[in-house]
Amino acid sequence: MSETTTIRTLLPVLIPIVVIELALLAAALADLSRRPAEQVRGHNKWIWVAVIVLINFIGPIVYFVAGREE
Asked: CA 3, CA 1: separation in Å to the nearest integer?
């Protein structure tokens, strides 16, 4: 199997994953930017920016589940 064939077979799987990752990243950063620091767990937005951006796919999910205080 050549490299081109491998890429062509993986693209239909990778494209939705990348789109979901980018949507989660954008939604988490948008939500974080709109919230006052008092409504963010730990009251430190920069830590949450690092978690969201650096821990791909899981970071935004962790923010939505544990980072927001209602």
From this structure: 7
Q: Are 17 and 24 in contact (CB under 8 A)?
A: no
Residues forming a β-bridge with 18: none
Give the C-alpha distances (Å, rounded to integers) separating 14 from 4, 26, 31.
15, 18, 26
Whether the CB-CB separation of 11 and 47 falls below 8 Å is answered with: no
pTM: 0.81
CA distance 16 to 23: 10
- Hey, what are 8's tokens? 């062509």
* pLDDT (tens digit per residue) in 8-64: 888 899 999 999 999 999 999 999 999 998 999 988 999 999 999 999 889 999 999
Residue of 23, 29, 25 whose CA lies nearest to 45:
29
